[in-house]
Amino acid sequence: MTSGRKAWRAIAMCAVGALGSIPVAAAARQDEKPAPQPPAALRAFEQARRAIVSGRIEWSVTPEEAPDRTLTFVSRYARNGDMIYENRGDAEGWTIFNQQTGEGFRKYPQLYMVNAEGVWHFEESTPGCGWWPTAWVEQQPPEAKLQFSHVRDVRTVGVAPFSGSMEYSRGLAALWPSAEDPVERWSEQQAGDRFIVRGEHRSGAVQTWYIAADRGWNAERITLEFRGRPVYEVQCALEKFGDVWFPAEARYYSRGAPSDCVTITKASFNSALDAGRFTPADLGLEPGSTINEVGATRGGLEHLTWTGAGIVTFGEWLEGVKAGKWAWGPIHRALQATGVFESPYDQPQELKQRRLRYRAEQARYLLTRNVGMWEKYVREFIERYELDQGQREKANLILLDCQRRGQEILQRRRSELSEIAAKLLDASEAGRTEEVGGLKLRLQQGLRPIEAIFEESLKPRLEKLPTREQRRKAEAAAATQPAAPADKTP
What we know:
This protein has ten helices and 20 strands. By secondary structure, it is an alpha+beta fold. Helix 6 (348-385) crosses helix 7 (389-412), helix 6 runs parallel beside helix 9 (433-463) and helix 8 crosses helix 9 (433-463). It is elongated and about 100 Å long. The relative contact order is 0.11.
């Protein structure tokens, strides 16, 4: 499976092919001059692209392996270098496809953010996101970073003859030869405002840039050739977006055959209104959303939560909500109201399965909540009397024995009780209040043998564990606390 596509394709990083000599226009100077370092025209090309710091670009790709499918994207850049890459999907909204069949199976827009804190992945409209901290990413071997190889930096479109050079982690380094196959001889020719720069690699490959000085020092064409045969090529149609020249279209070729076509539909660059930096809020992550930290270095065992302005542990979030400092976002409020997460990007079968899972969880809760709440009672009992290790072990053995007996009763009557629970859920969803009351009473009566285990076995057996001194200390501590409600059967 792949996000958007299979990362377009694997691209050779070293120069491995080239067309030999490129015929020079008649108007070009015939006195080619070897250059010991990259010619000025190529360095001007790099500087022009490096000057694009912030902005917003709407663009699309028609991939080589699916020429009838055009994928749309949005790239955003903050003034400090942060980047957001949005995969908005094809014409039908599919954003993730089966790698073997090519069929779409997920429509959630896939958003990625790269900032100083690391790499973030967010599926639009969901209640959480993934976060790969910078420190964790830097410690990983190169192959572990391939999960982000499909994330593109469209500012580098047309700087190299293959589309894979737009991988975000490469940046403008894609413009220059690799260390494995360096250029041993540079040359430059000029014909008016056009420059032809050639780099002859150690391997024998030749890369040629056709640079238009009057169009922002952009390349109109770049070729990579080897022994007279084409390997990669890009042809760019340049347009002015505001004050900046940039490719409106970049057509890529592989061994002479058409490959990916990148089209820029709308772009603005270096506006004073561009964001200074990006945070999860710019991805669309709402307050209360879970942040799944890869490596779990910050939150430890506790989940992290986005407040809308920062990251806290889930416990801190709940305390803040209780104090009125923060509030749940709309997605979470809807989830809390219905118990089922639903998104406009859900497919019917996907939503149906999720509802069925939730329905099963509700039914299971109705039948087992008493047994589950016994665990809470035992934990609080252990804390209240400050039981030692041996006493704790005995308390937990008592709990396990009572839970086993409760499960045996439930198993014997599961069919009958499950039917009552299902009818109760149906009546509740339909708003049949009177019927709900009757079914609750029937379910309560059916669960009474299990509830009896709590009163007749669990509680009295636990009460035998504390010593007189432990009871005295517990009573003294209770006397200093506000009055608590009497114990109730869970």
